[in-house]
Specification:
The protein is of the alpha+beta class. It folds into two domains: 174 residues, Elongation Factor Tu (Ef-tu), domain 3, CATH 2.40.30; 118 residues. The chain has seven helices and twelve strands. It has a six-stranded antiparallel barrel with strand order 1-8-11-10-9-12. A four-stranded antiparallel beta sheet has the order 5-4-2-7. A hairpin with a 7-residue loop joins β9 and β10. α3 packs antiparallel against α4 and α3 runs antiparallel to α5.
Protein backbone atom coordinates (compact mmCIF):
# COMPACT_ATOMS: atom_id res chain seq x y z
CA UNK A 1 0.00 0.00 0.00
CA UNK A 2 2.74 2.39 0.91
CA UNK A 3 4.51 1.74 -2.40
CA UNK A 4 1.30 2.37 -4.33
CA UNK A 5 0.77 5.65 -2.48
CA UNK A 6 4.31 6.79 -3.28
CA UNK A 7 3.83 5.96 -6.94
CA UNK A 8 0.57 7.90 -7.01
CA UNK A 9 2.22 10.91 -5.34
CA UNK A 10 5.16 10.76 -7.76
CA UNK A 11 2.81 10.60 -10.76
CA UNK A 12 0.90 13.64 -9.44
CA UNK A 13 4.11 15.63 -9.03
CA UNK A 14 5.27 14.72 -12.55
CA UNK A 15 1.92 15.82 -13.92
CA UNK A 16 2.21 19.12 -12.02
CA UNK A 17 5.64 19.69 -13.46
CA UNK A 18 4.38 18.87 -16.94
CA UNK A 19 1.43 21.20 -16.54
CA UNK A 20 3.49 24.05 -15.01
CA UNK A 21 4.42 26.63 -17.76
CA UNK A 22 7.22 28.23 -15.78
CA UNK A 23 10.03 26.24 -17.28
CA UNK A 24 8.74 26.64 -20.81
CA UNK A 25 8.25 30.36 -20.30
CA UNK A 26 11.70 30.69 -18.87
CA UNK A 27 13.26 28.85 -21.77
CA UNK A 28 11.25 30.93 -24.24
CA UNK A 29 12.30 34.20 -22.61
CA UNK A 30 15.93 33.12 -22.58
CA UNK A 31 15.72 32.14 -26.25
CA UNK A 32 14.12 35.44 -27.25
CA UNK A 33 16.68 37.35 -25.19
CA UNK A 34 19.51 35.46 -26.90
CA UNK A 35 18.01 36.17 -30.31
CA UNK A 36 17.65 39.87 -29.53
CA UNK A 37 21.18 39.99 -28.18
CA UNK A 38 22.58 38.38 -31.34
CA UNK A 39 20.46 40.70 -33.50
CA UNK A 40 21.67 43.74 -31.55
CA UNK A 41 25.33 42.76 -31.88
CA UNK A 42 25.08 41.93 -35.58
CA UNK A 43 22.85 44.84 -36.55
CA UNK A 44 25.27 47.28 -34.90
CA UNK A 45 27.78 46.31 -37.57
CA UNK A 46 25.75 45.10 -40.57
CA UNK A 47 22.72 47.44 -40.38
CA UNK A 48 23.70 50.25 -37.97
CA UNK A 49 20.90 52.58 -36.88
CA UNK A 50 20.97 55.97 -35.17
CA UNK A 51 18.54 58.73 -34.28
CA UNK A 52 21.41 61.16 -33.68
CA UNK A 53 21.38 62.66 -37.16
CA UNK A 54 20.72 66.19 -38.39
CA UNK A 55 20.17 67.90 -41.72
CA UNK A 56 23.15 70.07 -42.63
CA UNK A 57 23.75 72.64 -45.35
CA UNK A 58 25.75 75.67 -46.42
CA UNK A 59 25.02 79.00 -44.75
CA UNK A 60 26.30 82.17 -46.45
CA UNK A 61 26.23 85.64 -44.88
CA UNK A 62 25.29 88.07 -47.67
CA UNK A 63 27.51 91.16 -47.51
CA UNK A 64 27.85 94.35 -49.53
CA UNK A 65 31.12 94.71 -51.49
CA UNK A 66 30.79 98.52 -51.50
CA UNK A 67 29.33 100.93 -48.96
CA UNK A 68 26.15 102.91 -49.50
CA UNK A 69 22.55 103.51 -48.48
CA UNK A 70 19.99 100.85 -49.41
CA UNK A 71 17.38 102.25 -51.82
CA UNK A 72 15.55 99.06 -52.76
CA UNK A 73 14.84 95.70 -51.08
CA UNK A 74 13.61 92.78 -53.19
CA UNK A 75 13.34 90.09 -50.51
CA UNK A 76 11.41 89.20 -47.39
CA UNK A 77 12.03 86.86 -44.49
CA UNK A 78 12.12 83.16 -45.54
CA UNK A 79 11.73 84.06 -49.23
CA UNK A 80 13.29 81.79 -51.85
CA UNK A 81 15.87 83.28 -54.22
CA UNK A 82 17.89 82.07 -57.19
CA UNK A 83 21.54 82.67 -57.96
CA UNK A 84 21.96 86.10 -59.58
CA UNK A 85 18.78 87.64 -58.13
CA UNK A 86 19.22 91.20 -56.85
CA UNK A 87 18.55 91.17 -53.10
CA UNK A 88 19.39 94.78 -52.25
CA UNK A 89 20.07 97.87 -54.34
CA UNK A 90 22.42 100.53 -53.00
CA UNK A 91 22.27 104.17 -54.10
CA UNK A 92 23.87 104.15 -57.57
CA UNK A 93 24.44 107.89 -57.95
CA UNK A 94 27.86 108.18 -56.25
CA UNK A 95 29.16 105.26 -58.32
CA UNK A 96 27.73 106.64 -61.59
CA UNK A 97 29.42 109.97 -60.91
CA UNK A 98 32.71 108.15 -60.23
CA UNK A 99 32.38 106.36 -63.60
CA UNK A 100 31.82 109.66 -65.44
CA UNK A 101 34.81 111.19 -63.67
CA UNK A 102 37.00 108.21 -64.62
CA UNK A 103 35.88 108.49 -68.24
CA UNK A 104 36.80 112.19 -68.25
CA UNK A 105 40.15 111.32 -66.74
CA UNK A 106 40.81 108.96 -69.66
CA UNK A 107 40.17 111.85 -72.08
CA UNK A 108 42.52 114.11 -70.11
CA UNK A 109 45.17 111.39 -70.03
CA UNK A 110 44.83 110.81 -73.77
CA UNK A 111 45.27 114.50 -74.44
CA UNK A 112 48.26 114.64 -72.10
CA UNK A 113 49.86 111.68 -73.87
CA UNK A 114 49.18 113.32 -77.22
CA UNK A 115 50.87 116.50 -75.98
CA UNK A 116 53.82 114.48 -74.74
CA UNK A 117 54.01 112.77 -78.13
CA UNK A 118 54.11 116.18 -79.82
CA UNK A 119 56.86 117.25 -77.45
CA UNK A 120 58.88 114.18 -78.40
CA UNK A 121 58.41 114.98 -82.08
CA UNK A 122 59.51 118.60 -81.48
CA UNK A 123 62.58 117.41 -79.57
CA UNK A 124 63.44 115.08 -82.44
CA UNK A 125 63.24 118.03 -84.81
CA UNK A 126 65.43 120.20 -82.59
CA UNK A 127 67.97 117.42 -82.36
CA UNK A 128 68.06 117.20 -86.14
CA UNK A 129 68.65 120.93 -86.46
CA UNK A 130 71.38 120.80 -83.83
CA UNK A 131 73.11 117.95 -85.63
CA UNK A 132 72.94 119.86 -88.92
CA UNK A 133 74.51 122.91 -87.27
CA UNK A 134 77.17 120.68 -85.73
CA UNK A 135 77.97 119.18 -89.10
CA UNK A 136 78.39 122.63 -90.68
CA UNK A 137 80.45 123.94 -87.75
CA UNK A 138 82.64 120.84 -87.82
CA UNK A 139 83.35 121.21 -91.56
CA UNK A 140 84.09 124.94 -91.10
CA UNK A 141 86.47 124.20 -88.24
CA UNK A 142 88.30 121.61 -90.28
CA UNK A 143 88.76 124.10 -93.17
CA UNK A 144 90.16 126.67 -90.74
CA UNK A 145 92.62 124.14 -89.36
CA UNK A 146 93.68 123.16 -92.88
CA UNK A 147 94.26 126.79 -93.96
CA UNK A 148 96.22 127.53 -90.79
CA UNK A 149 98.32 124.43 -91.33
CA UNK A 150 99.16 125.39 -94.93
CA UNK A 151 99.53 129.14 -94.29
CA UNK A 152 99.85 130.33 -90.73
CA UNK A 153 99.22 133.98 -91.48
CA UNK A 154 96.23 133.54 -93.72
CA UNK A 155 93.68 133.84 -90.86
CA UNK A 156 93.63 136.01 -87.81
CA UNK A 157 93.39 134.65 -84.26
CA UNK A 158 89.88 136.12 -84.05
CA UNK A 159 88.73 134.10 -87.06
CA UNK A 160 90.27 130.98 -85.56
CA UNK A 161 88.59 131.54 -82.16
CA UNK A 162 85.25 132.27 -83.78
CA UNK A 163 85.31 129.04 -85.80
CA UNK A 164 86.41 126.98 -82.82
CA UNK A 165 83.76 128.50 -80.56
CA UNK A 166 81.03 127.84 -83.13
CA UNK A 167 82.10 124.22 -83.36
CA UNK A 168 82.02 123.63 -79.57
CA UNK A 169 78.70 125.44 -79.26
CA UNK A 170 77.25 123.14 -81.91
CA UNK A 171 78.49 120.11 -79.97
CA UNK A 172 76.82 121.38 -76.79
CA UNK A 173 73.60 122.12 -78.64
CA UNK A 174 73.46 118.53 -79.91
CA UNK A 175 74.04 117.18 -76.39
CA UNK A 176 71.33 119.49 -75.02
CA UNK A 177 68.87 118.42 -77.75
CA UNK A 178 69.57 114.75 -77.04
CA UNK A 179 68.95 115.31 -73.32
CA UNK A 180 65.68 117.11 -74.05
CA UNK A 181 64.56 114.28 -76.33
CA UNK A 182 65.39 111.66 -73.69
CA UNK A 183 63.48 113.62 -71.05
CA UNK A 184 60.38 113.92 -73.25
CA UNK A 185 60.52 110.23 -74.16
CA UNK A 186 60.68 109.27 -70.49
CA UNK A 187 57.71 111.52 -69.75
CA UNK A 188 55.76 109.94 -72.59
CA UNK A 189 56.70 106.33 -71.93
CA UNK A 190 55.20 103.78 -74.33
CA UNK A 191 52.90 105.24 -76.93
CA UNK A 192 49.35 104.01 -77.54
CA UNK A 193 47.41 101.64 -75.20
CA UNK A 194 50.64 100.47 -73.52
CA UNK A 195 51.29 103.94 -72.12
CA UNK A 196 51.34 103.66 -68.29
CA UNK A 197 49.20 106.78 -67.82
CA UNK A 198 46.55 105.41 -70.19
CA UNK A 199 46.64 101.97 -68.55
CA UNK A 200 46.27 103.56 -65.11
CA UNK A 201 43.28 105.62 -66.28
CA UNK A 202 41.65 102.55 -67.85
CA UNK A 203 42.13 100.53 -64.65
CA UNK A 204 40.61 103.38 -62.62
CA UNK A 205 37.59 103.35 -64.96
CA UNK A 206 37.23 99.57 -64.62
CA UNK A 207 37.35 99.92 -60.81
CA UNK A 208 34.53 102.47 -60.80
CA UNK A 209 32.48 100.32 -63.19
CA UNK A 210 33.02 97.33 -60.90
CA UNK A 211 31.92 99.37 -57.87
CA UNK A 212 28.80 100.39 -59.80
CA UNK A 213 28.04 96.73 -60.50
CA UNK A 214 28.66 95.86 -56.83
CA UNK A 215 26.04 98.41 -55.80
CA UNK A 216 23.55 95.64 -56.61
CA UNK A 217 23.84 92.96 -53.91
CA UNK A 218 23.01 89.67 -55.60
CA UNK A 219 22.39 86.12 -54.38
CA UNK A 220 25.51 83.96 -54.82
CA UNK A 221 23.48 80.73 -55.01
CA UNK A 222 19.97 79.31 -54.81
CA UNK A 223 18.61 79.36 -51.31
CA UNK A 224 16.29 80.76 -48.65
CA UNK A 225 16.65 84.09 -46.84
CA UNK A 226 17.02 83.98 -43.03
CA UNK A 227 17.91 86.54 -40.33
CA UNK A 228 16.70 89.56 -42.30
CA UNK A 229 15.88 92.70 -40.29
CA UNK A 230 16.89 95.86 -42.20
CA UNK A 231 14.86 98.52 -44.02
CA UNK A 232 15.24 101.21 -46.69
CA UNK A 233 17.87 103.83 -45.92
CA UNK A 234 20.07 101.41 -43.98
CA UNK A 235 23.74 102.18 -44.55
CA UNK A 236 25.46 99.03 -45.76
CA UNK A 237 29.17 98.91 -44.99
CA UNK A 238 31.63 96.87 -46.99
CA UNK A 239 31.89 93.34 -45.60
CA UNK A 240 29.06 93.79 -43.09
CA UNK A 241 26.42 91.00 -43.26
CA UNK A 242 23.00 92.21 -44.40
CA UNK A 243 21.17 88.88 -44.27
CA UNK A 244 21.82 85.15 -44.13
CA UNK A 245 21.28 82.89 -47.11
CA UNK A 246 20.74 79.17 -46.54
CA UNK A 247 21.91 77.47 -49.71
CA UNK A 248 19.78 74.75 -51.24
CA UNK A 249 22.46 73.78 -53.75
CA UNK A 250 24.02 71.22 -51.38
CA UNK A 251 22.15 69.69 -48.45
CA UNK A 252 23.27 66.57 -46.63
CA UNK A 253 22.69 64.53 -43.47
CA UNK A 254 25.27 64.23 -40.71
CA UNK A 255 24.67 61.00 -38.80
CA UNK A 256 26.72 60.62 -35.63
CA UNK A 257 27.40 56.88 -35.67
CA UNK A 258 28.99 54.84 -32.91
CA UNK A 259 32.56 53.76 -33.46
CA UNK A 260 31.66 50.09 -33.77
CA UNK A 261 29.07 50.99 -36.44
CA UNK A 262 31.91 51.98 -38.75
CA UNK A 263 33.67 48.62 -38.84
CA UNK A 264 31.95 47.41 -42.06
CA UNK A 265 30.71 50.71 -43.40
CA UNK A 266 31.98 51.87 -46.83
CA UNK A 267 31.57 54.89 -49.07
CA UNK A 268 28.48 54.57 -51.34
CA UNK A 269 26.72 52.17 -48.96
CA UNK A 270 22.93 52.43 -49.26
CA UNK A 271 21.05 54.35 -46.58
CA UNK A 272 17.40 54.77 -45.63
CA UNK A 273 16.21 57.61 -43.42
CA UNK A 274 13.05 59.28 -42.17
CA UNK A 275 12.08 62.81 -41.17
CA UNK A 276 9.66 63.86 -38.46
CA UNK A 277 8.20 66.34 -40.96
CA UNK A 278 7.25 63.48 -43.33
CA UNK A 279 5.83 60.67 -41.16
CA UNK A 280 5.11 57.39 -42.89
CA UNK A 281 7.64 58.00 -45.66
CA UNK A 282 11.08 56.47 -46.07
CA UNK A 283 13.77 58.14 -48.20
CA UNK A 284 16.99 56.81 -49.68
CA UNK A 285 20.58 58.02 -49.77
CA UNK A 286 24.20 56.95 -49.92
CA UNK A 287 27.23 57.51 -47.72
CA UNK A 288 29.37 60.39 -49.00
CA UNK A 289 32.16 60.34 -46.43
CA UNK A 290 33.08 59.27 -42.90
CA UNK A 291 34.82 61.32 -40.25
CA UNK A 292 38.39 60.50 -39.27
CA UNK A 293 38.58 62.53 -36.08
CA UNK A 294 36.52 64.34 -33.44
CA UNK A 295 37.42 66.72 -30.65
CA UNK A 296 38.00 65.02 -27.30
CA UNK A 297 39.75 67.82 -25.40
CA UNK A 298 38.11 70.95 -24.06
CA UNK A 299 39.90 73.02 -26.69
CA UNK A 300 38.67 72.22 -30.19
CA UNK A 301 42.02 72.42 -32.00
CA UNK A 302 41.91 72.61 -35.75
CA UNK A 303 38.11 72.87 -35.87
CA UNK A 304 37.40 69.12 -35.53
CA UNK A 305 33.73 68.13 -35.12
CA UNK A 306 32.62 68.25 -31.48
CA UNK A 307 30.15 65.41 -30.89
CA UNK A 308 28.46 64.99 -27.52
CA UNK A 309 27.92 61.40 -26.46
CA UNK A 310 25.07 60.30 -24.23
CA UNK A 311 26.06 59.56 -20.66
CA UNK A 312 24.65 56.65 -18.71
CA UNK A 313 25.50 53.75 -16.51
CA UNK A 314 27.72 52.25 -19.21
CA UNK A 315 30.18 54.26 -21.26
CA UNK A 316 28.62 55.03 -24.65
CA UNK A 317 31.00 54.39 -27.57
CA UNK A 318 32.59 57.39 -29.21
CA UNK A 319 30.60 58.72 -32.15
CA UNK A 320 31.95 59.92 -35.50
CA UNK A 321 30.19 61.99 -38.16
CA UNK A 322 29.03 60.15 -41.28
CA UNK A 323 27.96 62.36 -44.17
CA UNK A 324 25.02 61.06 -46.22
CA UNK A 325 23.87 62.20 -49.65
CA UNK A 326 20.15 62.72 -50.15
CA UNK A 327 19.29 60.97 -53.42
CA UNK A 328 15.85 62.45 -54.09
CA UNK A 329 16.89 66.01 -53.24
CA UNK A 330 14.36 67.69 -55.56
CA UNK A 331 11.47 65.87 -53.94
CA UNK A 332 12.59 66.97 -50.47
CA UNK A 333 13.37 70.64 -51.21
CA UNK A 334 10.09 71.79 -49.66
CA UNK A 335 10.36 69.38 -46.71
CA UNK A 336 13.87 69.50 -45.33
CA UNK A 337 14.94 72.14 -42.84
CA UNK A 338 18.51 72.67 -41.69
CA UNK A 339 18.92 71.24 -38.20
CA UNK A 340 15.96 68.90 -38.59
CA UNK A 341 16.16 65.53 -36.84
CA UNK A 342 16.68 62.38 -38.91
CA UNK A 343 16.59 58.65 -38.16
CA UNK A 344 19.09 56.71 -40.27
CA UNK A 345 19.81 53.07 -41.04
CA UNK A 346 22.81 51.95 -43.14
CA UNK A 347 22.93 48.72 -45.16
CA UNK A 348 26.53 47.53 -45.24
CA UNK A 349 25.83 44.24 -47.03
CA UNK A 350 23.24 42.03 -48.71
CA UNK A 351 22.23 39.97 -45.70
CA UNK A 352 18.54 39.16 -46.26
CA UNK A 353 17.50 38.62 -42.63
CA UNK A 354 19.26 41.61 -41.07
CA UNK A 355 18.33 43.91 -43.96
CA UNK A 356 14.68 42.84 -43.75
CA UNK A 357 14.57 43.49 -40.00
CA UNK A 358 16.26 46.89 -40.53
CA UNK A 359 13.74 47.82 -43.25
CA UNK A 360 10.85 46.83 -40.98
CA UNK A 361 12.36 48.82 -38.11
CA UNK A 362 12.86 52.06 -40.07
CA UNK A 363 9.33 51.82 -41.49
CA UNK A 364 7.89 51.19 -38.04
CA UNK A 365 9.74 54.26 -36.72
CA UNK A 366 8.39 56.23 -39.65
CA UNK A 367 4.83 55.33 -38.70
CA UNK A 368 5.50 56.06 -35.04
CA UNK A 369 6.72 59.54 -36.00
CA UNK A 370 3.03 60.46 -36.37
CA UNK A 371 2.80 60.55 -32.58
CA UNK A 372 6.29 61.83 -31.74
Amino acid sequence: MEENQEEIISEKEDKKEEKSPIKKTTYFVLLVTLIFFLWYVLSDRYTPYTDQARIKGLITPVTARVSGNITKINISLNSKVKAGDTLFQLDKRPFEIAVLKAEAEIDNTTQSVAASTASVKASVGKLGVAKAKLDRAERNWKRVQKVMLENEGALSEADKDQSETAYFQAVEQVASAEASLERDQQRLGDSGPDNPKIRGAIQALEKTQLDLAFSSVIAPTDGVIESYDIDLGYYASTGQPLTTLISTSDVWIQANMKENNLSLMQIEDKVEFIFDIAPGRVFKGTIRSMGFGVATDQTNKGGLPDIKSKTGWLQDPQRFPVIININNNDELKDLIRLGGQVDVVVYTGDGFILNTIAKFRIRLMSILSYVR
